[in-house]
Structure formats: C-alpha cells, structure tokens
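A reminder from the course coordinator: this example appears on the midterm review sheet, so study it carefully.

Given structure:
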C-alpha cells in the first residue's frame, strides 16, 4: 500500500526504532508509549485489521503472535506479565489501518482497559 504509514516503516522509508524482525514480521517501538515497554508488531504484508489478518489463513497471524511473545521475552516482561492488544475498528481506538499488535508491559496493567 503506497499510502500506509506502517507499510512505509516496513519499507524503511520512515524511521522507527526496530526491536525485532523476521521474514514476515517487524516490531518497533510505539512513538507515544503507554507503558515502559510499548512495541508494535506488524506483518510486513498489508492487512487493514485483525479480522483481515485472521482471514489471511496462511499462518501469518501465528507469526505475529509468536513475534509478540519474542518481543516480550527480549524486553524482559514475559515473566511478570504483559498484554497483547489488537485495537480493531475505530470504535476500539484503531487509528492506523495496517494491523498491529501492541505489546505492553513493564508496569501494572489494570482491567478493564479504558
Ligand atoms: P492504534 O490506535 O491504531 O491501535 O495504534 C496506532 C499506534 O501507532 C499508536 O499507539 C501510535 O502512538 C502509533 N504511531 C502512530 N504513528 C506512529 C509512527 O509514525 N511511528 C511509530 N513508531 N508509532 C506510531
Ligand atoms: Zn500497510
């Protein structure tokens, strides 16, 4: 997608602090972190949201989840607990329509979320 912010980050046309990369996924720090660890995990292939990612049906959703956990281990938050969030649709607060998992940790996370 030519006009997608996260496609541009994947293409390295826009800089980001990349913390993990696989053949099919990229993880980079959120520009406006909501926790000490706040990393976004995206598939390199463009899918607008989690529903579309689920429909991709080629193991890509699995790759994104595996990368999210690898990031949590790398960031040192896996043992204490972390949260993986897919805001899906405007009503849930999604603002960038290239699917991304938020990996949040490093502070107590309350429930329910806002
Ligand atoms: P959403 O609201 O769609 O669930 O999450 C989008 C996230 O992308 C937000 O947490 C926002 O801070 C982050 N974000 C927006 N623009 C940029 C950017 O240019 N670079 C990075 N690293 N994060 C961004
Ligand atoms: Zn995209």
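Designed residues:
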């Amino acid at each position: 997608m030519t006009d997608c912010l996260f496609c541009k980050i994947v293409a390295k046309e826009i800089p980001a602090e990349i913390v993990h990369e696989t053949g099919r996924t990229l993880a980079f720090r959120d520009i406006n972190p909501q926790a000490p660890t706040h990393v976004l995990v995206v598939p390199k292939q463009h899918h607008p949201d989690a529903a579309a990612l689920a429909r991709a049906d080629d193991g890509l959703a699995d790759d994104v989840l595996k990368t999210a956990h690898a990031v949590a281990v790398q960031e040192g938050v896996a043992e204490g607990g972390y949260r993986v969030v897919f805001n899906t649709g405007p009503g849930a607060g999604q603002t960038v329509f290239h699917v991304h998992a938020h990996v949040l940790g490093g502070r107590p996370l309350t429930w329910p979320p806002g």
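The pocket of guanosine-5'-monophosphate (ligand 1) is lined by residues 5, 16, 28-32, 40, 87, 93-96 (CB under 6 Å). The two ends are 31 Å apart (CA to CA).
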